[in-house]
Amino acid sequence: MSTQISLAKQEWIVILPDQDGALERRLRVRQDHLAGLKPAVEQGFWTFGGAILEDILKEGEGPKIKGSVMLAQADTKEDVLKALKSDVYSKSGVWDWEKVGHDKAMIR
Q1: Cα within 13 Å of Cα(61), Cβ side
Q2: Of 10, 20, 60, 88, which has the fewest CB atoms closer than 10 Å, so is most exposed?
Q3: What is the pTM of this model?
Q4: Strands 65-74 and 10-17
């Protein structure tokens, strides 16, 4: 059994905190965000993603979202950042770019 890993594409995990007070903007453009991701998901660029919650979901309440987490398969960090900056959440001021964290990951 080989222990070598193909380096053609790397996994990149990104933590994207929301700006204070961004929940309304987030919800307003959510469908555009999901539609915009779909082609890259189908191509295997985005392999995981979802909201980061402030608290557990409670019956009768909407989710208290405070950010996003995403996992990409890409050649470079720049490819990932370019995709994120073109996302409607970036263009609508949902994500707080001063707090965004990104790093290589290996998820198995």
Answers
A1: 9
A2: 60
A3: 0.84
A4: antiparallel
